Amino acid sequence: MRRTTAFAASLLLLATALSTVGGPVAAADPTDPVTVTVNTRAGLATVPETALGVNHAIWDSQLGSAETSDLLKAAGVKMLRYPGGSYADIYHWETHTAPGGYVAPNTDFDTFMAGARRVGAQPMIIANYGTGTPAEAAAWVRYANVTKGYGAKWWTVGNENYGNGHYGSAWEADDHPDKSAAQYARLVVEYADAMKAVDPSIKVGAVLTMPGNWPDGITAGSDPGPWNQTVLSLAGPKIDFVDVHWYPGGNAADSLARTNHLPDAAWLLRQQIARYAGPGADRIGISFTELNVDAGRTTAPGALFLADAYSGLLEQGVFTVQWWNVHNGIGTVSEVAGQTDYGDFGMLSSGNCTSDGEVCQPAFNTPFAPYHALSMMNLFARPGDQLVRAGTDEPLVAAHAVRRPDGSVAVLLLNKDPDNAHPVALDYAGFTPADEAPTVHTLANGATGISTGRSGSATVRTLPPYSLTTLVLRPAGSSAGRPGAPGRPTAGAVTDRAATISWPAATPGASPIAKYEVHRQYGAVSEQLGETAGTSLTVGNLEPGARYTVNVLARDTAGRVSWSSPPLTFATGSPAESSCAVRFNDDNDWGNGYVANVEVINTGAKAVDGWTLTWTWPTAWQQVSSGWSATWDQQGRNVRVTPTADNRRLAADGGSTTVGFVGAYSGPNVPPGAFRLNGTVCTLR
């Protein structure tokens, strides 16, 4: 976390500038039932043991206290980060000092570890990159795991090191004369080598930036590319995970809407890892170790954002999500939906007052709304549960779901509407709930805790304004005897129109396996692409340049169906041969906009006299702001480009023209996957 919240706010304004598309969608009539679809056939990631995390900081004298630790344990915290955001880059563990910053008593490493053990959480430790050395980090590993036997597995090199001034803004300490991304990457290699020489079993992570957030896409100095590309290209073979932060910014409605960026951000991040990190890049995990909001930090917006973001990131296979932070202190006080918001990044009260003494927080360690949301996550998604696809037809109502090893299903419902209750009607695919009242956990706006009881039905519910509700549903019948889930699929021989999906065989249950079914996730529903008695299937009729997420299910001779396999996401390409080709270059990116050149090439045997180039943006927050050398038009996500008088003719066998535009984006900037010239899909060069 940045050391001054004012600067954080200014940075977030920079990161969300030109946010002219994909704004809040008007809600439907709140008296109309919202349709919620829960599809247990559309499996997502499995909840890891380290899923629920928070940050501790060395300015918090109670970080290791029994009271604080017991509160975190009760909320289900399984990972604790130390020594605290940007402080990590000025902190020296051996002397327990942070020159230029405040270090509270009772915050040394051993005290932190004692608290972590009381919580039952694994530590994630930030090695000092800004003012430290590889030798200092290696000595910390030696002390932690050799001298003390703590078994500390997770170590990150630095905090927000792209904030060292290399891109213009400087809040992160960095004493190195060379502040480039390349120098950070080279030193990450030195840190990893030194630390693993002491304990080869540890996992070392490098700092990346969230796709779509500053300084994503910006190349500075002599770096070979933007921060993520440079760090992964040079340090990828040495690291085990990447570490990312996300502060979505904006008002409460903005931050609650921006959770829909997460699938595309995770996709881009994995694409960057796969492209730049070298052989075996699929071993590299992703951690999100700082999240919070600008508005409603201690009230319902913070709680709703926490539950929605944690769920969304865990669905994408992130191995830990960590709130910023446990205790922080009072900030700007406001009223949010009838509740006092203390502007505090902490999820537990620090018990302090504004500088004028006019407003004081509740007693120390009083839980704020995000704490209760974390407790709700612990009731909803437990280690070993498989997240499954869920969706709604109302933008102010969100849904997430898990299927548990005992066959039960839990559904998390979020009402992001501060003013209206929303009735919901739930529909289930691949699961039949028992005819009984479900267990219901509810966190209402302003509540001091989660209420739990059994009431209503599995299919109808009314969600109070600004609330979180979890339903826990038992299955109508027994799942005994069903086959095991197939293993994780892989995609091979991917073209523009086809792909071969392969998977490890499932373990039979009470009856032999009869066949496997391959299903595409299409929103919250599934579309069967095909079936086979084997463990490989070539699927055709795919769209060029499109992203597909598929699952495999096993069905036995008695008709019993397995849980879904882990998901596979892949993208089709462009045709190997076509009568046209396109070269799309993002030439000058500044973090929320860029200049692009598009070369249009006629590879056919006949000249083209008059042309229309079209593509569809992958997201609603991307747009063409202005263009040149052509006539540009965007309707919704669809872009149409037509020539001027002097470039309408493209000669045969390679005749080309280059046109350009200024693009803008307010979320992950996913490049177009397919371009069409006069309706023909072009080869993308």
TrEMBL record:
InterPro entries: CBD2, CBM2/CBM3_carb-bd_dom_sf, CBM2_carb-bd_dom_sf, FN3_dom, FN3_sf, GH, Glyco_hydro_b, Ig-like_fold. Residues 485-575 form the Fibronectin type-III domain. It holds the Pfam family CBM_2. Keywords: Carbohydrate metabolism, Glycosidase, Hydrolase, Polysaccharide degradation, Signal. Coiled coil: none annotated. CDD domains: FN3. It comes from Micromonospora chalcea. Residues 1-27 form the signal peptide. This is Alpha-L-arabinofuranosidase. PROSITE patterns: CBM2 (PS51173), FN3 (PS50853). PANTHER family: ALPHA-L-ARABINOFURANOSIDASE C, ALPHA-L-ARABINOFURANOSIDASE C-RELATED. SUPFAM superfamilies: (Trans)glycosidases (SSF51445), Carbohydrate-binding domain (SSF49384), Fibronectin type III (SSF49265). Residues 573-685 form the CBM2 domain.
